[in-house]
Structures are given as C-alpha cells and as structure tokens.
Specification:
single chain; Nucleotidyltransferase, domain 5; five-stranded mixed β-sheet
C-alpha cells in the first residue's frame, strides 16, 4: 500500500512511503511463515532502491518490524517488494540481472548507479530465487557431458555438466577434481545416477573415476576431438624430431622446410592452401617417416568421420594395428595407450555418436561471459551469471512477461 510520495532534495530522489498489505504482514523474512511480532525494529524507517523515475532515483521507504520465528529466531519481517536482507526492490534486481546478461558489469553499474560488486550480489540473489522456484531439472536426465573450463589465471577452473537432450547447462561448481562433482551426484541422488545412460568426456582420469563410482549403468563416450588431438600432438613430436635431426646434420634448408610445414601437417586436407599442398607433397617425396605420421593422424580423424557402427570399430582396430607397427615410437606408444585404456570408450563414441561438442560450446560461452563482465571477485557471482545465461532460466524485464 502506498501511503505518500515526496521528493527529497538532499538525496535528489523520490521517496515512496509504503506498507505491506495485511496478508503479507508478520511473516518471517527467511521462510515466509506467519509469526508472532517481536518489536517495532530500531524505530527508524528502512529504504530500498527502486527503479528510477526517468533520470531521478526512487527510494521505497517503510517501517520495519521484527518477528519471532520458531525456526530462525528473531528476524526482520518479510516485505513483498524486496528479498530478505537486500537493499534493492525485486524489480530493480530483475532489471540489473537482465542487463547483466547483455552487457558488462561495469556498464550495468554505471547505468544503474550502483557498485560494481553489488551487480554480482544481485545476480546471485536473482539466481537463488530462480533455482528455488524452478522444477527439478535433474528429473529425467539420461545423457550428460562433463568437462572443466578455466576462468582465471593461476589454474582456476570450473567443473561443468550439460544435458545433451535439452542442450542446457545442468550444473557448475568450482574446481576440477573428483570431489568437485560430489555436489552433482548428491543432487542427482541414487535413482538419478542409475538413470544416466551415456556420459561424454575427455580423457581426464578424475571424470572417468567419478562416473564409474556413481553411475554404474553409464557408458562413457570419449570425445573424438581429444583423441585426434593426441594424434596431432604425436605428429608434432615427429616433426620436431625430424627438424632437430636435420639441424644437427647441417641440413639448414631441409630443417627450414620442415619447420615451415607445421600448419600444412596440422590442417585437414580440404582446408589446405595451394602453397601448403606443395609443402605436403615435398614432404611425401623427401621425408617418409614424417609423411607416415601425417597419414596416421589423418586416418584416425577419418575413423570418426566415417559412417556405420561396427564398420568404424573395424577401422579403429585397423588403425591400431598400423600404428603399432609404424616404427614411430610416439605413435606406437599412443596405439598401446588407446588399446589398453580407451578402446572401449572410443567404440562407445563411434556407436552412439556422442561427443563433447556441446560442452565445448558451453565452455566458450562461459569464457565469453567472463570477458564481457570484466572479471569477478567472487566465483559464486560468476557461477550465478553463467546459470542465468546458460541454464534455461527466463529472466524478464519488470512489467514485460
């Protein structure tokens, strides 16, 4: 109920004096339970920052009382226009959160005339309310992807879980270890863990161990990009060894050609320029071991690009047989490692056609959000902003449903 409106020249702001309606009065600010009154507070009115009236600030003012809650003790009574403990109205919080998904925190702070850290606190409040009101997002999850993403220098990481079916962010937490996923398994529960059928991941041991400990029915699909990246790294090691041998032998021109062929060896054949094709042809003529390493990398890439299920498994076994006898130590070691530890997971990938492409896209968006926001002092504020953008929550401007 609005009791009066007046302009305070000292604050250069409109002051709207209000009181809650009877059905909202006398409730605990934490749990919203109706409770007996305790006192009239400190005797001074409380003010909340509301939405601006044009270019003039607007403050909502009310007398605050305290109630005695059986669960939370003596607390300030709830008010319908603001969250408990907040200094801004709900509409102000919604506007700040909506703007934070579209511009930097610095721009939001300047536009709304609030502190830079206050933007992060508002995002965390809005996100907490959205999660409390949302339905169980983990109820029917069956196919997930797990990965980590760096958000700050100094080996600062976030663990990210996405749902391949809804294509939304499911869960995010600080760290990148088996312990970091403990909260996700706890929220999912034993029944939810039993429902997980497919998990896409890179070759990180901590992800494999966590999934095998909690999701006994899940099939792990090793991300194809990371498998091909292993072969690309092995190819580069062969290239560097050939370059070093040419330098030691005094073959300066040959060493220069090998060094300049890096991108010709890395790129896919259809993406090569005319000059790079010429370099690759020269390597095929003059350096058979290096060209063999290039063919091994390309053949492994084509294993994932080919169609069919059992046929692709046969292609993988043929590649492993070739790599084990190629007389290139790095590829021999790679073939042994894949056959010993990852063959079954790669077969799962070939069969179910599941990769980490969705979660890599999510990681890119997280990095973009971090850059747009120009940093965070609290990782929880960053997590709240990521959820606000990528978890499927709908945050609208006040008055626009």
């Amino acid at each position: 109920m609005v009791e009066s409106v007046w302009f305070d020249p000292a604050l250069d702001a409109f002051v709207v004096v209000v009181r809650p309606r009877q059905r909202f009065a006398g409730r605990c600010g934490v749990c919203q339970r109706r409770c007996p009154g305790y006192d009239r507070g400190r005797g001074e009115p409380r003010r909340w920052r509301g939405l601006d009236h044009g270019t003039v600030r607007c403050l909502v003012q009310a007398e605050l009382v305290r109630v005695r809650c059986p669960a939370h003790g003596v607390v300030t009574a709830a008010v319908p226009w603001a969250r408990h403990g907040a200094g801004h109205t709900r509409d102000f919080d919604r506007k700040a959160a909506w703007l934070a998904t579209r511009m930097s925190k610095t721009a939001v702070a300047r536009l709304l005339r609030i502190g830079w850290e206050t933007v992060g606190q508002i995002i965390a409040r809005v996100m907490a309310d959205a999660e409390a009101q949302a339905v169980d997002r983990l109820a029917n999850v069956r196919r997930i992807g797990i990965d980590e993403v760096s958000y700050k220098r100094g080996y600062k990481y976030l663990t990210v879980v996405v749902d391949h079916d809804s294509r939304k962010l499911l869960w995010i937490a600080e760290g990148h270890s088996k312990a970091s996923l403990a909260g996700f398994w706890a929220e999912l529960g034993p029944e939810g863990c039993a429902r997980i059928a497919l998990v896409s991941a890179d070759g990180a041991d901590w992800i494999f161990n966590a999934v095998r400990d909690h999701c006994r029915n899940a099939v792990i699909c090793l991300d194809p990009f990371h498998v091909v990246a292993w072969a690309t790294k092995a190819l580069d090691e062969v290239r560097r060894s050939v370059w070093s041998a040419a330098r030691r032998a005094g073959q300066t021109a040959a060493a220069s050609d090998v060094k300049g062929a890096r991108y010709a060896l890395w790129k896919n054949p259809q993406d090569l320029t005319a000059r790079q094709r010429t370099k690759l042809a020269a390597i095929a003529e003059t350096n058979r071991p290096l060209y063999r390493a290039y063919l091994l990398k390309e053949q492994l890439r084509l294993v994932f690009a080919a169609g069919g299920g059992a046929e692709r498994a046969e292609l993988l076994d043929a590649w492993l047989h070739w790599a084990a006898r190629c007389q290139l130590p790095v590829f021999v070691d790679l073939a042994r490692r894949i056959r010993t530890y990852f063959r079954g997971d790669i077969i799962n990938t070939l069969t179910h056609r599941l990769s980490n492409g969705l979660i890599e896209s999510t990681n890119t968006k997280i990095r973009l959000l971090t850059r747009i926001a120009f940093g965070f002092k609290s990782v929880q504020a960053l997590i709240a902003l990521v959820k606000l953008n990528l978890a499927g929550y709908k945050i609208t401007l006040p008055g626009r449903e």
